[in-house]
Design a protein that fits this description.
The complex is a heterodimer of chains A (277) and B (229). The longest helix of chain A is centred in the last third of the chain and has 56 residues. Chain A is mainly alpha-helical. Chain A has ten helices and no strands. Chain B contains eight helices and nine strands. In chain B, helix 3 runs antiparallel to helix 4. Classes of the chains: A mainly alpha (277), B alpha/beta (229). The interface between A and B is medium-sized, with 24 and 25 residues.
Chain lengths: 277, 229
């Protein structure tokens, strides 16, 4: 356990600088976005007033400024989508960088006097820490950006919104910041299972090279089918209508958990018996 | 004793190791030699469990390789396997964190022996100093067996001399050393046992000193007989 935690610490510290840099970039882009959105609003409002209308008429027309106007813009959704893409890219990089480059660090990792599965879980844990750090930072950013908007737009034009409201309104953030615990388990539990499946596929490639790449792709397809198997079987047999939605959901969760457990076992086997440096 | 018994390894259809067998004892320096591609590094990796074998077995003091065996073995690969952004001190801390066999006194001694500055970042080191750090991280473990893969590769003559001096120092003590190298001349006088590999199998195994005394041949002479008949 101690060595696992040390490995997690190592993996997190390897990505910490990039993570901080990325978060700083996201924050700057989003703040610029708030500034542009607020200024655009004020410009429009001023034009309406200059046209002879009263400020009250703007409010009567329900033309308030809020963070909801900022959501679904390229300034908010763009960096979030880029972060999601970066995390997906990092799922591969976290393994391949240890095999490649001048200093082949995978030698050291695989020769540590600890279970190789610790190396596997340390990488998975580091990725989850990375993701939750990003989410926590995004929540904090939304609060700061909300306050920033309050500074840019007169109070009477502002409609206060909460972080869940903003997140729910944005087509990407609603998955990043789920509004219910069930959604949280579904999105992040599902995300973790996808992670284990991708790790298995990567280790297949690392074990059998080109054949492994093909095997990995087939494994991903098989894992998707296995996860969806209860629903697919019921649909094919025309029994789906006999179950409540919640029952179908539980079946899907169960098959997904089995898929995740199978992926961990496959990775364990590959790391111990097949992987080649 | 480290025993490699009838080990076979295939890459696709190509048989890289074909029934390789030899032993390496504590207190001896065993040199695996052969031209490029005969499977020297593959044997090293197989011993360390870094590449799976297709047949045979490898025993360390009578036991198969397990995670605890990694405390008995230390590997010095041909390139330093450590994060380049770490300083030498941080790299030593990393090793101390993970290996119970890490010996900080010996690490400090090796630092002085190689005249290395522990504050230096690995990415800024010369090739010679990188090789020395590689040796330091490997030798500072109280491991029974030291495996070295081309420790002299691509480094200057003075660094090679300095590294060769390690073999005659107490830093090796009574450990078993298995080394692969093309720079035979640098360590020929230090080698106890020579295992000549050819076409994926052991062509000849002999004691270097006996060969010199009884047949008047150097290791290089034997190699010539094998590869330039």
């Amino acid at each position: 356990m101690k060595r696992y935690l040390k490995l997690v610490n190592l993996e997190v510290s390897r990505v910490a600088k990039v993570l901080l840099g990325g978060l700083a970039a996201v924050f700057i882009i989003q703040m610029i976005g708030v500034w542009i959105t607020a200024n655009q609003y004020m410009k429009n409002a001023n034009e309406v007033i200059m046209g002879g209308a009263s400020a009250q008429s703007i409010l009567d027309g329900n033309y308030y400024m809020s963070m909801l106007s900022f959501s679904n813009t390229i300034y908010l959704s763009g960096p979030v989508a880029l972060c999601a893409g970066a995390v997906f890219f990092y799922i591969f990089l976290i393994w391949y960088r240890d095999w490649n480059g001048k200093n082949t660090f995978i030698y050291r990792l695989l020769m540590l006097p600890t279970a190789r599965l610790s190396v596997y879980f340390s990488k998975a844990t580091a990725l989850m820490i990375l993701i939750f750090t990003m989410v926590a930072a995004q929540i904090a950013f939304l609060k700061i950006e909300s306050s920033f908007m309050d500074l840019l737009v007169p109070t009477e034009y502002i409609m206060e919104t909460t972080v869940p409201q903003i997140a729910n309104h944005d087509f990407i953030l609603r998955y990043v910041i789920p509004s219910t615990f069930t959604e949280f388990i579904l999105y992040y539990g599902g995300g973790f299972i996808i992670l284990t499946v991708l790790f298995s596929a990567i280790l297949m490639e690392r074990s059998f090279k080109w054949k492994g790449l093909l095997l990995g792709l087939l494994y991903i397809a098989a894992a998707v089918l296995l996860s969806l198997s209860p629903i697919l079987v019921l649909v094919v047999l025309d029994y789906a209508d006999y179950f409540y939605e919640s029952e179908l959901l539980y079946m899907f969760i169960a098959s997904s958990v089995i898929t995740g457990a199978l992926s961990v076992w496959v990775s364990h086997y590959l790391l111990n018996k097949k992987v080649t440096v | 004793m480290l025993e490699v018994k009838n080990v076979t390894k295939k890459f696709g259809r190509k048989r890289v190791l074909d029934g390789v067998s030899f032993t390496a004892n504590k207190g001896e320096i065993t040199c695996l030699i052969g031209i490029n591609g005969v499977g020297k590094t593959t044997i090293m990796k197989a011993i360390l469990g870094l590449t799976p074998i297709n047949g045979g077995e490898i025993l360390i003091d009578g036991e198969k390789l397990t995670k605890s065996t990694y405390e008995k073995l230390t590997f010095i690969p041909d390139a330093l396997a450590m994060l380049p952004n770490l300083t030498i001190m941080q790299a030593m801390d990393f090793m101390a964190d993970f290996y119970d066999s890490w010996n900080q006194d010996r690490a400090d001694e090796l630092l002085q022996f190689f005249k290395l500055n522990e504050e230096d970042r690995i990415s800024t080191l010369s090739k010679g100093n990188t090789a020395k750090v590689n040796l330091l991280l490997g030798l500072a473990q109280d491991a029974d067996y030291v495996l070295m893969d081309e420790p002299f590769s691509g480094i200057d003559i003075f660094s090679r001399e300095q590294i060769a001096n390690v073999f005659t120092s107490h830093l090796i003590e009574d450990r078993g050393v298995i080394i692969t190298t093309h720079e035979i001349n640098d360590i020929e006088h230090l080698i106890d046992k020579v295992v000549v590999l050819n076409n994926g199998s052991v062509y000849k195994e002999f004691n270097a000193e006996d060969m010199r005394i009884n047949e008047g041949k150097s290791v290089v002479d034997v190699l010539r007989e094998v590869y330039i008949p």
